């Protein structure tokens, strides 16, 4: 099984490109904190390259920015290529098939207006259906799967 689940913060804005066939691909790097501190008591992070394709690539390029917290699910992939000096370079990255935007976007971003669609807006299929209702949730034993 090859499954990766990560939560981290973007180290810079995502970069979106298109293949020669017109397929969207977006790349970004996540800083993922390690669960322990080093000998000096400082927390360290791993910097993990993420690749998204097609509709997910478009969503990530539109809504994610440097510093935003995001969760990703996907698979680990290793590939290689020859650089300009003729040396073989190996790359390990996560090819994400899901992304979870864990923070709301700010009202403005460095002078740029936020996109008109907020992925956390009510009615969004990924939004919390109980957020802001202020009403108790009625759950019976018949509703539980166990």
From TrEMBL:
Classification via Pfam families: SSB
UniProt keywords, alphabetically: DNA damage, DNA recombination, DNA repair, DNA replication, DNA-binding
Motif (Important for interaction with partner proteins): 141-146
Biased amino acid composition, Low complexity: 118-132
Keyword DNA-binding: yes
GO BP field: DNA recombination; DNA repair; DNA replication
GO cellular component, one term: nucleoid
Region of interest: Disordered: 105-146
Alphabetized GO MF terms: single-stranded DNA binding
Keyword Cytoplasm: no
InterPro entries, alphabetized: NA-bd_OB-fold, Primosome_PriB/ssb, ssDNA-bd
Subunit note: Homotetramer.
Function: Plays an important role in DNA replication, recombination and repair. Binds to ssDNA and to an array of partner proteins to recruit them to their sites of action during DNA metabolism.
Name of protein: Single-stranded DNA-binding protein
Species of provenance: Brevibacillus thermoruber
């Amino acid at each position: 099984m090859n499954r990766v689940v990560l939560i981290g913060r973007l180290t810079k804005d995502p970069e979106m490109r298109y293949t020669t066939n017109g397929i969207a691909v977006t790349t970004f790097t996540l800083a993922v904190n390690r669960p322990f501190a080093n000998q000096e008591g400082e927390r360290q992070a791993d910097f993990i390259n993420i690749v998204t394709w097609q509709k997910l690539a478009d969503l990530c390029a539109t809504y994610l920015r440097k510093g935003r917290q995001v969760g990703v699910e996907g698979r680990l992939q290793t590939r290689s290529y020859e650089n300009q000096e003729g040396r073989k370079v190996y790359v390990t990255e996560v090819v994400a098939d899901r992304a979870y935007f864990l923070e709301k976007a700010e009202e403005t971003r460095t002078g740029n207006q936020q996109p008109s669609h907020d992925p956390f807006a009510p009615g969004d299929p990924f939004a919390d259906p109980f957020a802001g209702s202020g009403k108790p949730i009625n759950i019976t034993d018949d509703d539980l799967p166990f």
